[in-house]
Amino acid sequence: MPISRPESSEYHEFYETYVSKVDAAGGVLEQLEAQIAETLSMLADLDEERARHRYQPDKWSVKEMLGHLIDAERVFGYRAMCIARGERASLPGMEADDYVAGARFDDRALASLLEEFEHLRRATIAFFASLDNDELQRVGVANQVEVSVGALVFIIAGHHAHHLGVLRERYRS
After folding, report:
1. Does residue 76 contact residue 159 with C-beta atoms inside 8 Å?
2. What domains are defined for the chain?
3. Number of other CB atoms surrounding residue 163 within 10 Å
4. DSSP state for residue 89 in the 8-state scheme
5. pLDDT, tens digit, for every residue of 17-76?
6. CA 19 to chain centre
7. Fewer C-beta within 10 Å: the chain N or C terminus?
8. How far is CA 127 from CA 50, 109, 130, in A?
9. Of the candidates 31, 11, 19, 16, which has an alpha carbon nearest to the alpha carbon of residue 125?
């Protein structure tokens, strides 16, 4: 079952940057799948030194960017699972810079991060593919704003697309 593009009322306006990057005509789950190969092909050939590269001293390294993508997908996926299962409690936000600072991504092998990303992404796809329309339309509160489960899958795909663009422009050019 294809997942429909969410209405703008299903997510906070901040996330429009991400949602707008998803080509819904091709299917959001298909885009998630395609991002696996795109990410692996973009980053797998980097050596460890280049994977620790920062285009400015105060910016994340390539490894930290990949780690951020992993963390964000976990958080968005957790929010989706909770809301799909009927959670009524408000779910916490995520301060990305704090998460990256506490993670030691630069100490890990790039291959380990890529493997983790691929496994997580396949689990994300399997989870969203298992949901029916009622579950996708459920709305909960995360980071103090309402969001639907269906919007979260678009946010995951668009967030990843956004950061792949940054990697392409700032790190791989």
Report:
1. yes
2. 8-44+54-171 (1.20.120.450)
3. 18
4. S
5. 999 999 877 899 999 999 999 999 999 999 999 999 999 999 999 999 999 999 999 999
6. 11
7. C
8. 33, 27, 5
9. 31
CA 15, CA 65: separation in Å to the nearest integer?
18
pLDDT digits (tens, 9 = 90+) for 140-150: 999 999 999 99
Other beta carbons less than 10 A from residue 97's beta carbon: 10
> Does the predicted TM-score (pTM) go above 0.90?
yes
CA gap 50, 42 in Å, rounded: 12
CB 134 within 8 A of CB 102: no
Question: What are the C-alpha distances in Å from 122 to residues 32, 74, 81?
Answer: 9, 12, 15
Residue located via tokens 């957790």: 78
Those residues with Cβ within 8 angstroms of residue 72's Cβ, 6 or more apart along the chain or in another chain: 94, 96, 156, 159
